[in-house]
Amino acid sequence: MVGSPVGCTRLPDGRRISARHAGRLRPDSDGRSAAISEKAVIRMHREPYELLRAEISGENAKNMAADIWRHDMTMSFPEQAKAARYCVDRLKSARASGVEIIAFPATGKAVYGAYRLQRAWRAGDAELHIVKPAAQAGRVLSYRDNPYVLCQGSLPTPKEGVEAEVVILEGGTKDADYRKVDVKGKIILTSGAPRAIQDMAVKHGAVGILTDTMATHPITRPTPMDLPDAHLWQVLRPEGKLWAFVLSPREGRRLRELVQAGGKKGEPVLLRAFVDAEPYDGDHEMVSACIKGTREDQEVALVAHLYEPGCNDNASGVAALLEAVRAINALIKAGRLKRPYRTIRVWLVHEFQSLMALCHERPEATARVIAAANVDFIGQDQALCGSQLMYQTGPDALPSFIDHVTLGLMSYFQSTFNTWGNMGSKDSYFATVQTPFWYNDNFISDPSIGIPSVAFIQWPDKFYHTDHDTPDKLSVDSMARVTALAATWALEIANARLPEALDYAEMVADYGSEAIKRAAERRIDTVMKSVEQAAGDSAEVEKTFAEAWRETHARVDYVRDRQLEAVASLRVLLNEREMPKAASAMEAASDLLYSTAEIWQTRVHRRLAAFAKARKLEVEAPAEKTPPTRAEKRAAEVIPYRKIKGIVSHDELPADARKAIEKASKGGIPRLILFWVDGKRSLLDICTLTRLEGDGPPIDAARAIKWAEAMRDAGVLGFRKG
What is the pTM assigned to this prediction? Predict the structure, then answer.
């Protein structure tokens, strides 16, 4: 027998609440609070969505995406600047306010926090020819025909070009890869990314790189030959050390066969490369504009990255925001919408780079934003691209009501499809899926920046990051519907005041209770499966089961606490006079979350106890917490804090510290461990929270100490004594 029975959940003051709130729970709800009223759904979702859906033109959005793509496909900064000015013109014609271009240095030397901005780059022309064997001589690649064939950031060749032998190299990131292949004065043909090998290639004397790399996906692109004639977008960041071309899988196969055949005959394959391109000191430009609200000290932001070479990724997201601004302002002008209470901000950016710079250069601009949505590539023809619309909630380390508003909006959106019981709808089925926090421009959800963010993105995509991401892959219907979703999301939160805050409190309680239920059921299922599949000593199986039982209770409390923080986040919508009026609704939402957690703690205990009995395990209760180890005691005394906010690129850290971090990270670390560092939690608390979060492998106290010390030595963290 291990441990003792778990106690019931209590409120912080010790009150038991199950009896008090039993009447608030539906008998068949498994702990869920009553759903928010249909009237509230209509007010919050249907009315603005249908109004915007009728005004928004998917055709106009698609056309704008194609216009932007014609500039961005070149990957050249001067053309990207034209894309920015095109967006400025469109925003001004849509009556947006405060339209401006914000510039940051694109010198390859500007570092914000621990993140370096890419150096500017321009390209005019580039060609690759086969010279020998003579029977195969001719042009293979041309930048004029297809800009994707030149790796962004490539250095120029001499004006007369370069003639050199091509050799096949596997790997290329380590000195050992070059021991059997002499690359000095030669062109490397590799299946790797040029960015990963360029330093080693230069060190060993190569004059250039060819790659036939092609990313795969188990559903949409299982093998490189599923897109045999596509070229994958490649970048040398923060700047190139030599030139590099990109071959399609078919072109790569052909060239490899030539090299191998020539090797057998002692006749090397000779290529001629010409590149007219250069890095230069320029500007990283982001476009900023807004729809002014009556309250200008708070903003809701819509973000899309402007400077990638695909029409879907991400000209479609940018075009969606341009059309959203036009539609909202048109409805305001027509008197069909009121001017929003909060300002709606639009940022069109270099992915990651612009917002990292903005957070450091203009912290007052990000401080005004209370919520943001990243609108990534969203315009796909779902059937053609194999895509579904993902709506990503924020990270656990920054809980917010906006996650629940997004879930409510998507639930309404799904109800609009033409299906049995809704045969009058003109909207066909649209594949959607909720996913947890990813990591794109919603990285501003990092608590060191502190903007709660969600994201909309269609994924997977058969043509992602290739030259086949062209306007014909866009769907007018997708553009219209997702633009309406993003605009509705922004309008709802921009207009949210006391009445909406009361509704949102119910939504947090409702969806939060469902999250508690889901977490408990999944953990129960996982624990049972692990026992069923276990082999070996029964005592060890029982010990592991008892520990997993304890962890299941901890997971329920963890999810409950995140939902309680989401309730508290509603305060940002309220002024001082409104806070007392919302207090009872927020307290009721919190109480319901406590009640739901209590119900599920009881069920966890009952179900796992019954399972143990049925399996004849000598376990009647979860394992008791073990005494802390020496490392855990030490970790409990260390309170780390962030010295650098936002993204931390390990490339920007000192070499010794980087090696120490890599050593401490051996075996993996939680993906978002830095998000939990707030200057209040101990390192031991962070180990526990990241383990319960479950995003990446857990880290024990001993390794966490080594990792934190390495991050401290790198200047990323500081320590306080607990």
Answer: 0.94
